[in-house]
Amino acid sequence: MRKRIEAPPLITQTVAFAAPVALCVAVRRSRTRDVAVCALQMWAYLAAYKTPHDDEAAQSERVHIDYPIDIDRVLGLGELPTLRLQRALARVDPASGTPSWRALDRVLVWAHWTWFMVPHGSLAYILVRHPERFERAAVMTYAVFDLGASFYWLAPTAPPWYAASVAGREDHGAEDVRRMMVEYGEHFWRDGWGPLYSVFGGNPLAAMPSLHFATSLMAAFLLAQEGPLAGGLGAAYAATLGFALVYLGEHYAVDLLAGAALTGAVRRFGPRAGPALERFGRAIAALEAMAHETS
Fold it and tell me: Which of 70, 109, 75 is nearest to 89 (CA)?
């Protein structure tokens, strides 16, 4: 609908982010409403994430390609970490030239794909185990999502696989890296890969910071408050995903560092926003009470 009616981005974002607030007014507080508010928040985030790519030509004119390459070459001591890892670990059949998928490749690809469930699954776990902690955990998790999306508007940045695809014709000097997640997706899902990817894709220039890593790291911190086992699993997943994102060609190492910095900033400075959020919450609660005072 956003694309069909060509609404200005400000209008679509206002409508999208008003939806969870409106639900809080229209429906009384319950666990079901909490989950629905989180779902609407993610609907709003997806609008913020995808809208910059509605005009592909305009976005491509603003895309940053060189600076993450330059930083990653420093981090990789002269060579991109992604290229180092792919040369050391990835395999291609010498006879046919097709990729050979080992267990390590499959584990790392599936670690990437399961990310879509991890931040929200962690919140669901907290909601069931310690519902009194859920509100704070949800605010911190979705703050990472929303703040990260703002960078995609302000400074669209290319991931390694995108930079490699334009290096030859635009002379950006990017190394030729493979996008192994897509290669394996085409191998595993076959004809179903195209429709599946079209659902979860939407903005190829949303790389800096890496919200895959940032939100997984936040989930690990929140799960650590639930106990050593949950925290250990969360940390192991975040570490595995971080390695996978660089190895598979989805992110530069600097994207992960920026994602970690974003998570750290939300944890460090989030409490300072507490009083303002409490005032906002009381205002919404007052509107909710007015809406239901006759029922």
Answer: 109
Phi-psi region of 132 (alpha: psi -120 to 50; beta: other; left: phi over 0): alpha
Q: At what angle do helices 228-247 and 103-113 cross, to 10 degrees?
A: 110
Structure tokens at 103: 């267990």
- Measure the CA–CA gap between 254 and 232, rounded to whole angstroms: 24
Going residue by residue through the chain, which has 295 residues, state the pLDDT in tens, using 9 for 90 and above.
Answer: 777 777 788 888 888 999 999 999 999 989 999 999 999 999 999 888 988 888 888 888 899 988 999 999 999 998 899 999 999 999 988 877 788 899 999 999 999 999 999 999 999 999 999 999 999 999 999 999 999 999 999 999 999 988 877 755 455 556 678 889 999 999 899 888 888 877 777 788 999 999 999 999 999 999 999 999 999 999 999 999 999 999 999 999 999 999 999 999 999 998 888 888 889 888 988 988 888 886 5
Q: Is the dihedral of CA 41, 44, 48, 53 positive or negative?
A: positive
3-state secondary structure of 20: helix
The 8-class DSSP code of residue 95 comes to: T
Q: What is the CA radius of gyration of the chain?
A: 21
14: amino acid identity, one letter: T
